[in-house]
From TrEMBL:
InterPro entries: Kinase-like_dom_sf (IPR011009). This is Serine-threonine/tyrosine-protein kinase catalytic domain-containing protein. SUPFAM superfamilies: Protein kinase-like (PK-like).
Amino acid sequence: MEVVNLFSINSSRAFNIIIRIVNGKREEPIENIPLEYLRLYQKCLQDDLNIRPDINEIYEILSKLKLQINNNNNEKLNQISYDKG
């Protein structure tokens, strides 16, 4: 996956990237991305503005994901401590 800074490239290349995005081209999801995050990302890229989530929905989903990740990490740390003990 190529990361591109549109401000540091020439205008014709930036235009080509914009055209690809407008035509529906998207990068491939990275490995091990949480499914809920992928769904949110895809929903945010919908052409129909009525389908896209508003900022409150985005915040709520990301907050829940953060909590899940923190809980999972704490469980892993507790398991490691228990295994050593």
